[in-house]
Fold Methyltransferase domain protein.
Amino acid sequence: MGVRAGKARRWGTVDAVIARFAAAARGRVPRLCPCCGHEGLFTAFGDPPRYDARCPRCGSLERHRLIRLWMDRERPFGPSHRVLHVAPEPQLGPAIRALVARYETADISPRRAPDHLLDICDTGLPDGQYDRIVCNHVLEHVDDIRALAEMFRLLAPGGLVLLTTPIIEGWATTYENSAITAPEERRLHFGQADHLRIYGRDLRDRIRQAGFRLSEFPAMEPDVHRHGLIRGETLFLARKPDPSSEEAA
Ligand SMILES: [Zn+2]
């Protein structure tokens, strides 16, 4: 008990120092935020903190800016689309809502008053109701095989999931261990107290095994330095096949 309490106190102190450092840290080069148009120095965010992570005006992080760049270039949202935004980020939600017929939010927590209070692994929502699902940094928290199957079920044929999640491209296989359950152990092994795994490249197999066709939008230069992205961070685009308009593959 005594040792554990002492450890907790030391971690608390380290966390406080990191938080103070992160609050004061800035990038050194001006970036342009595609989410809000802000141009200037970004601020640090994360554990450990990353320079240039957060737009000081709208709060966007690297992944939000990556997704917004892809949205602006590919125009994947249209006026007839029905969208489900899981664990909705305020940095992206309003921009998507403005483009589509129906925009709904879903979360396992009531904190942000979602339209649907649900578990993405078992939503209880009807089949084929959505044309787009946005699901960032959720899979690493849940039973991903069930979540992918559920999103496949919720999509109409031809529908698309926008997915991001932490991934180590140098690993062939995902690291997970169901025996590791204590928050501090999960933080050490998986990078965050409520993460269940860290993906390797086989994330792609899991997405395809759920029935999706997969394409990718990785952060490349000059976008990385211009918009403050993480080199190689990838937006995964998982499409549910549409048998009525199958192109020759
Ligand atoms: Zn911004």
Notes: The chain has a mean pLDDT of 91. The chain has two domains: 1-60, 61-244. The pocket of zinc ion is lined by residues 33, 35-36, 38, 55, 57-58, 60 (CB under 6 Å).
